[in-house]
Amino acid sequence: MKSKIITTLAFVGLLGVFSVRAGETITLKLSDAKQTEGNKDHFGVRDDDGALFFYSNGTGEWSVKVQSAGEYMLTVNASCASSKNGNAKFKVTVEGKIVGKEVELTSDSSKDYTANVKLKEGANRVGIGFTNDEYKEGEYDRNLFIHRVSLEKKQGARD
Q1: Which residues, in sequence order, are CB contacts of 111 under 8 Å at separation 6+?
Q2: pLDDT under 70 in the chain at which residues?
Q3: Total Cβ atoms within 10 A of residue 151
Q4: Which residues does 64 contact at the CB level (< 8 Å), separation at least 6?
Q5: I need a surface site. Which of 11, 33, 63, 94 has the fewest CB within 10 A?
Q6: 87 CB contacts (<8 Å, ≥6 apart)?
Q7: Which CATH architecture has domain 17-153?
Q8: Dihedral sign (CA 30, 109, 75, 38)
């Protein structure tokens, strides 16, 4: 019986279905992000540190499957290359709709930024969109770098 349970859990894990209980966290694989808008040459995963890069405005999206609907905390660990007019900004989307307010990074250094999102049972499209690219050749080039994205079911959320 124990073998059957382990096999079932392994199969469910391969499908990308996660049962996230309050206080548990799932980390999204950066290389699984699919670009839904923007210049395809300005989006990808860097070889040197594995960060997801946005060299111009655009959105990267993940398909996230959860076994229960509810409130989740999305944590985005991000850094940026700032420009003369400030730091990078990004928006969070669920099913293509903006959730909360646009987030402005507070420094160039890697830091966690959070947003509360509501997910439905089953598959959800969760996205991060770089919104304020700025570039002037030889002077400045604002870019956004995502180092980690995770979801944690909030305390008191439905199971």
Answers
A1: 77, 78, 79, 105
A2: 1-23, 156-159
A3: 22
A4: 16, 18, 26, 28, 119, 123, 124, 125, 126, 151
A5: 11
A6: 80, 104, 105, 106, 107, 108, 142
A7: Sandwich (2.60)
A8: negative
CB 159 within 8 A of CB 22: yes
Nearest to 20 by CA among 147, 112, 121, 129: 121
Kindly list the domain boundaries of the chain, sorted by start residue. 17-153
Around 105, how many Cα atoms within 13 Å sit in the side-chain half-sphere? 29
* H-helix or E-strand spanning residue 2: helix 2-15
Amino acid letter, residue 12: V
Q: Find all residues with CB under 8 Å of 48, minimum gap 6, and list them.
A: none
Is the Cβ–Cβ distance between 66 and 78 less than 8 Å? no
Q: In this structure, are residues 154 and 71 in contact, taking their beta carbons and an 8 Å threshold?
A: yes
pLDDT in tens, 73-104: 999 999 999 998 899 999 999 999 999 999 99
Please provide the size of the chain in residues: 159
Backbone φ and ψ of 31, nearest 5° = -70, -10
